Amino acid sequence: MQADNASTTLPSTPHSATLLIHCQDRQGLVSRITDFIARNNGNIIYLDQHVDAQKQVFFMRVEWELESFAIPAADIADQFRQELAEPLAMHWQLHFSDETPRMAVFVSKLPHCLFDILARCQSGEWNIDVPLIVSNHPDLKPIADRFGIDYYVLPITPNNKQEQEAEQRALLARYNIDFVVLARYMQILSPEFIDHYPERIINIHHSFLPAFPGAKPYHSAYARGVKIIGATSHYVTSELDAGPIIAQDVVHVSHRDSVEDLVRKGRDLEKLVLARAIWNHTQRKILSYDNRTVIFD
Amino acid sequence: MQADNASTTLPSTPHSATLLIHCQDRQGLVSRITDFIARNNGNIIYLDQHVDAQKQVFFMRVEWELESFAIPAADIADQFRQELAEPLAMHWQLHFSDETPRMAVFVSKLPHCLFDILARCQSGEWNIDVPLIVSNHPDLKPIADRFGIDYYVLPITPNNKQEQEAEQRALLARYNIDFVVLARYMQILSPEFIDHYPERIINIHHSFLPAFPGAKPYHSAYARGVKIIGATSHYVTSELDAGPIIAQDVVHVSHRDSVEDLVRKGRDLEKLVLARAIWNHTQRKILSYDNRTVIFD
Amino acid sequence: MQADNASTTLPSTPHSATLLIHCQDRQGLVSRITDFIARNNGNIIYLDQHVDAQKQVFFMRVEWELESFAIPAADIADQFRQELAEPLAMHWQLHFSDETPRMAVFVSKLPHCLFDILARCQSGEWNIDVPLIVSNHPDLKPIADRFGIDYYVLPITPNNKQEQEAEQRALLARYNIDFVVLARYMQILSPEFIDHYPERIINIHHSFLPAFPGAKPYHSAYARGVKIIGATSHYVTSELDAGPIIAQDVVHVSHRDSVEDLVRKGRDLEKLVLARAIWNHTQRKILSYDNRTVIFD
Amino acid sequence: MQADNASTTLPSTPHSATLLIHCQDRQGLVSRITDFIARNNGNIIYLDQHVDAQKQVFFMRVEWELESFAIPAADIADQFRQELAEPLAMHWQLHFSDETPRMAVFVSKLPHCLFDILARCQSGEWNIDVPLIVSNHPDLKPIADRFGIDYYVLPITPNNKQEQEAEQRALLARYNIDFVVLARYMQILSPEFIDHYPERIINIHHSFLPAFPGAKPYHSAYARGVKIIGATSHYVTSELDAGPIIAQDVVHVSHRDSVEDLVRKGRDLEKLVLARAIWNHTQRKILSYDNRTVIFD
Lengths: 297, 297, 297, 297
Hints:
4 copies of one chain form a homotetramer.
Chain A: E1 2-3, E2 16-24, H1 29-39, E3 43-52, E4 57-65, H2 73-85, E5 91-96, E6 102-107, H3 112-122, E7 129-135, H4 141-147, E8 150-153, H5 161-174, E9 179-182, H6 191-195, E10 201-205, H7 217-224, E11 228-235, E12 245-252, H8 259-282, E13 286-289, E14 292-295
C-alpha cells in the first residue's frame, strides 16, 4: 500500500534490488513474492522471512540481482505496488545496491564514537557519506576539520531549543540527509523533531537497556554492583531510551573496576554496538514493528 | 532424487512437516517449493534458505502446518519426490513434528554430559527417547540405573575393537536407535562404524577446534597460555576431530587458572555445547555439506 | 573485632586455612597480615586484596598451608583476633579447607537448576552436602527420591506463611544447614526469615538485573524487544531482587525467539550462573559490603 | 638481580611507583616486599600476586603512592636492589606513573587498527606518544599526515630485508621508541630484529591462536566451517605466531557469513584485542614467563 521510504533517485545499473516487506500474515505470501521475482528473471541472492505468530505479522527481506531482470529498475516500484503491495496491503521499501546513504552525526564532547564512524567511512569499510556534523559544543570541531566535514555548533539552552532544532532540521534538509546518528549526543530531542525522522534517528545508550536509562548509567551500574555492563543502540522515539532496540552487547566487569574503568570499557562497547546498528540500517536489514525490530542477518 | 533419511514411520495426525533440502542453485527454487506448499493449502510457519554463492548450492528448511494440508502425511514424500525432488535433483529429508528420535549415549568415566542429557530428557525439556547407554567402563552404571536406562559395558582393547563395535552396532539396531551421542566417550570409532551412521554420530570435543585436536586439550591449552578455552560439537567422520562443526562456545580464562580449573570451566562448556548440538539435530535444523554445516535458527 | 561466621567445628589436620577480611583501609595492612602468617611458618598459596578507594575499605582473601604452621588450627582464630583483628577493628572469617558445607535447596516446580545442582554434588564436582530439599509443591519429589534426599512439601498460602516459614527454619536447624539456595523457588521469603541467614541465602533470578525484576521477566524481555537476555545470582535481602549480585551472564537472542525460546535459552543461563555463585560461595571467595560483592578469583 | 627494563629517566614528582617482580617462590615474599613499602611510609594502592604452583615461581605487581614515601624516586631502584632484589634473586621492573611510553606502529595496507590506535591516543584515552609509523607500503601515509605523524615507507623484498630492518632499527633508536606495535603489518621480522626488543613488540593475529597461524586465517576458518572466529594479541618471538599471548577475543559466525563477512567482523575484533594488549602493556600489567603471560587486572 505505502512505500515507507522508497528511494527516489533511480540508479542506472544497480547490481541488486532489496525489498523489505511487512503485512498481515496469510498463506502463500512467500510463494507470490518469489514468483514475482522469478517470473521476471531475477536471481534471488538473499531471502529471509519471519512470522510473528502471536500478532500474525509477516516480515520479509529479499534481494535479487538486476542484471537480467525483465523490469527496468525505474519501474520495479510501480509494478510491485500494483501486482502485490496494494492487493495485499503491504508496507514495503525498495532499495538499490548502488545508493549511498547520507548520514549526519550529532555529538557533544566525547570523541570515541565519532572517530570510529569517520574511520570506517574514510577507509571505505562503509559506503556512507557523512557531509554534516552537528554539536552543542565546539570541542570536536578539530576532528571534523581533520576529516574535512562541515561542523555546526548549535548550543542548546532551555530557552533556545525550539529555534536550534529548527536550525538543525534546516541543515538536515540542506545537506540532503537520509538518517541521523546520535553519537553520544547529550541532548534530548523534542517529539516534533523525532516525528520528522521515524526510524531514521539512531542513538547509542551506554547501558544495557532497559536497565539504567537516562543520565549517568555507569555510575548507577557501579552503585548497583552489576557484574556485566552493556550498551544499546536503538531508534529514537519520543519516549526516552525506549525506542526499538537494534543492537546490544555487554562486557564483564568486576569489583576491581571503578566508575572510570566502566566508562573506559564501555567506550569500546558503545563504538561497536553503534557501528553494528549503522551497518544493519544502511544494509537495509532492519524492519521495525510494534517497538521491536526484526534484524535480518 | 534421494531421500537421505526420510522418516518411515508415518504419523496419524502430526502437527507439522519439515523439509530439509539442498541442491544445485538455480532461479525460482524458493518459488517452486513454496508454491507446492501453498497450492496444497499448507501454512508455512518457518522458512529459511541459504545459498552458498561460491559453490552454487541452495539450502532450505521449510516447515508448514498439516492441519488443512491437501496431501495426506503418508503421501507427501512421494508427491514431493515426483513433482520437485527428482526433476530438480534435490537431496532432501522430510520429517514430521510428532516423531520422537531415539538416541544412544556412549560414555567412558566422566558423568557431567550424561547427567545433563538425562536431566533434559527426563524433565521433558527435550522430546527424545534414550533407551540405551554404552560404555567401555562400568563407572557410570549407577547413573543409568538411577534413570532406569539399559547400560552395557563393552571394554575396548586393541585386540577386541572389531568384535566390540559389532556388538555396539547390534545394540543400536536392536534398540532401534536413530543417532548416537559421544558424551566424552574416550574411544576412537573405526571408519566402518562411522560409515554406518553418516551425520548420525555427534561428538563433543573439549577444545576450540581446530585448535588442540586429539588427547589432553586442556593440558595443551594451559601450556600454550591461551586466554580463552572452548568446546566443539561436531558430526563424527573418519578423520579424528575433523567432522562438520555444529556448535562451539568459549569461556575466558586467566593465568590464575590451573589445568584443573580449565577442566572445571570446560565441563560447563561441554555440557552446553553438546546440548545445543543435540537440540539442533533433533529439531532438524542442520544441513551438512562439504564438511560444513548450515544451522537454521 | 567480630568473627562473622568463623567455623566452630575444628579439623584435625586441614590442608589449608583461609582468612576473609574487610576493615577500614590504612597503611601496612597487607604487611602485618602476611607477616602474621610468614612468622608462624605458613606458606601462602593464595593472596588477593582489594581497596575500595572511594569508601576507604580494605578487602583481603589469604589462604595458606597448615602443614608446618606454628599455631594449631584450633588456636588460629583466637590468636588472630588478639594480634590483629581486635587492634585493627577487622571483620573477618576463618575457614578450613576440609569443611564440607551443608546446603538446603528450595524449589517450586522447575527441575533444571535442582538437577544441575544434584548432578554436580553427586558426581563429586562439588564438595557440598545436600541433605534437605524444601518445596511448596510435590512435583519434584521424584528427583529428590532418585538422589536419596529428604524432600519436604510446605505449601505457602497468604494465611500460613508465618507458620510454614517457622517450619522451614526448624528444618534448616535440624539438618544443620549452612546456607540456602533458592533454585527457582517462586515464593518471597519474609524479612524475618532473611534476617536469620545474612549472606547465606542465594537466589537465581531469570533476568539481567536490575532489568526486569519481579515476575515474568522473560515475557517482559520479549515485549521490550531486547537482543540479549540474562540471569543473575545474588544474596537475598529483604528488598526483592535487590541484594548483592554474585554472578551474571547473558545470551544473545533475536526476533526469531519466542517467549518460549527465551525460557529455553534462559534455563541454561540460570543453571550456569547459579552454579558459579554456589561455587564462589563455598570456595569462600565472596565478601559482601554495602550491597556489592568482592569476588576473589 | 637484574632490572629488566627499569626506567632511566627519573620523574620529579611522580604520583606513584609500580614494581613488577618475578622470582623463585619462597615463604614470606609478600611480607618482605610490602614491609619495604610500608616501613618507608608508602601507601599501597594496588597489590596482586600469583604463584605458579607447578613451577614454583612467584609473580607480583605492587603500586604505591609516592607522596610521603621516605625514599626519593631517584633512589628507589638502588635501595630495592640492595635490600630485596639481589638477596632474593628477583627479576624486576620499576615504573613511575608519569612516564609516557613512546610507541612505533608498523603497518601495511589495512587502516582499521592504525585508525583505532591514533584515535585513542589523540583523544587522550591513552597516555602514549606515537611519533613514528613505519610501513612497507605508502597507502596509509594520508592517515599519518592527517594525525601529523612521521611515516616512513620501507618496502621489503627478499633481497633487501636485512638493510631495511637495519633502517627500521635506526628509526626506532632515533625516535627513542619504547615498544613496537605491528598493526596488521604483513611482514615477518627477522629473529635478529626481534631479539633486540624482547617483550617489546606486540602483534595482532587475526585468528584464535593456536588455530590458523600464518597467512589467510579467515579463509582457513571459513573452509573449516568454524562457528566462532577470534583474534589474538601476543608478544612477538622468533617462532611465528607462537609468542606469549596477551589478549584474545572471539565473535560468533554462521553459515551465512562469507569470507568477506569474516574479514569484516574480524576487523572489529582485531582493533579491540590489540587495544587491550597495548593498554595492559603500557599500564605495566603484564609479566611474561615461559611463553605465558600473567596479566594483572
